[in-house]
User: Fold this.
Amino acid sequence: MLNALSVDVEEWFQVGAFENTIARADWDSLESRVADNTAAVLDLFAETGARATFFTLGWVAARNGALIRRIVDAGHEIASHGWDHARVFTFTPDAFRDDLARARAVLEDAAGVAVTGYRAPSFSIDTRTPWAHPVLAEAGYAYSSSVAPIRHDHYGWADAPRSAYRPVPGSDLIELPVTTMPVLGKTVTAGGGFFRLLPQHFTDRAIRHANATERRPAIFYFHPWEVDPGQPRVADAPFKSRLRHYSRLGAMAGKLRKLVRRHQWGRVDRVVAEQAEALA
Assistant:
């Protein structure tokens, strides 16, 4: 079964863990590492022949046009991650429309292709944003992968569906929630920091369960900064944030290489197309 491989393209300093420590006004003065880190991810995918979707911030695309073109030229999908990683629940509906439009315009200009997919920063479409999916549908997006059906201190919509669904009646918009897995009595996402921190068999088991038992694709995600153990350290960030962000960065590339080789992967838009047929 084809599973969705996705990369949330953002700088090391744009993550939710540092949002109260590093001011947006300081971003342009910090060392940019996103191009080199994403290039390393592209090289890893080239080794294995995998295709993926790169959910990219408009802020990053505006400063790294050559990187966006390289992603597209390699056969991957460019999709939107919003403009500057502001969480959707911090917007009004009109502000969300503006953020979507601003990011999409820059991404499409850099990529030379249409952008039809969206992932909310920090999976921030939840019970606080009942207007978000209708706004995405109104803007003509084919799909969103913005819901994490878990409970977490930073994000989550625990009661949301775990498989693909149409969140807006009368619309073709599909929501493709990120895959989850049980760990020590809790439900966590099968990607990102949990993939990096936990033994690999947890994620492999979650993917096999989704494919073989539930007969649905797995949706996996990670970030380019997670393959960069040499990134700057933010000493004044909270201890919990530093622990989550920096732990096991050196192991990530090797774990990814093994995961990509063990399962069948493709772009999110391809998986969405298959799910659309199943939902018809």
Observations:
- The radius of gyration is 17 Å.
- The mean pLDDT is 95.
